[in-house]
Amino acid sequence: MRRALPDMGLEAFCQAPVCGVDEAGRGPWAGPVCAAAVILDPDDVIIGLDDSKRLTELRRAGLEPHIKARALAWGIGFASVQEIIALNIVGATGLAMARAVDALQMPPAFALIDGNYAFKLPCPTKTVVKGDAISASIAAASILAKTARDRLMRLMDLAHPGYGFAAHKGYGTALHARTLRELGPCAIHRAGWGPVGAPASFQGCQQGADQAVSGIVGPVFSAASVR
């Protein structure tokens, strides 16, 4: 039986406007965590929205401009490597989500959050387990978060050559483990994650890394648009 794609069924039972919120990059050994918030137009259905993990990179890239052009509003927020270390990944994910929602130029009345953790956002929320496979708004947010973070990690590959960031995006692959053994951690690695470790000289690099990322994605790690 063919799996049903995400739709606007959940959004119809929430006070409008409703934003879907999702993240990308909770698990990697390197790089920031990214979140996106999207308010879709219920009268302008975007065909093909789905959990970003079920889509190819080419398909995500094709959907990204349609989401940005046809959504009522969208916002992207990052939490830096330094913030991940200071707040832990749960706190940093919540910070990135709050920044994404704050970046929306149309304030949402309600937010649907992917997963089972009720992050504190500036509006009432509902958590939805596997929400990116159920809610079109969350699916759209998952695509924007994934494409934004992947784009940043390709830029980080140029800034820190040799680690393969453009290929694995900071996740714990065999290639990443090998380059860590050969080169040691760089400034965008998350101290204490997996095999990364936390030598004193490495910790001192993290602020410079966050400044470099901020220069690319903005001083508060956010971007937004409204239709």
Structure description:
With 227 residues, the protein is of the alpha/beta class. The chain has a domain of 147 residues: Ribonuclease H-like superfamily/Ribonuclease H (Nucleotidyltransferase, domain 5). The protein is built from 7 helices and 6 strands. A hairpin with an 8-residue loop joins strand 1 and strand 2. Helix 1 packs across helix 3. The radius of gyration is 17 Å and the shape is globular. It starts with 17 loop residues before the first strand and ends with a strand. About 6% of the residues have low confidence.
Number of strands: 6
Q: Note the run of SSEs as H and E.
A: EEHEHEEHHHHHE
> What is the CATH class of the domain at 11-157?
Alpha Beta
Instruction: Describe the strand arrangement of the main beta sheet, using strand numbers.
Output: 5-4-1-2-3-6
Q: What is the radius of gyration? A: 17 Å
- Which bin fits the share of residues in helices? 40-55%
Structural class: alpha/beta
The CATH topology of the domain at 11-157 comes to Nucleotidyltransferase, domain 5
Summed up:
This protein is an alpha/beta fold. It is 40% helix and 15% strand. The chain has helices spanning 57-70, 81-103, 136-159, 165-168, 174-183, 200-203, 206-217; strands spanning 18-24, 33-39, 73-79, 110-114, 125-128, 222-226.
List the helices and strands and how they pair.
Layout: E1 18-24, E2 33-39, H1 57-70, E3 73-79, H2 81-103, E4 110-114, E5 125-128, H3 136-159, H4 165-168, H5 174-183, H6 200-203, H7 206-217, E6 222-226
Parallel strand pairs: 1-4, 4-5
Antiparallel strand pairs: 1-2, 2-3, 3-6
Helix pairs in contact: 1-3
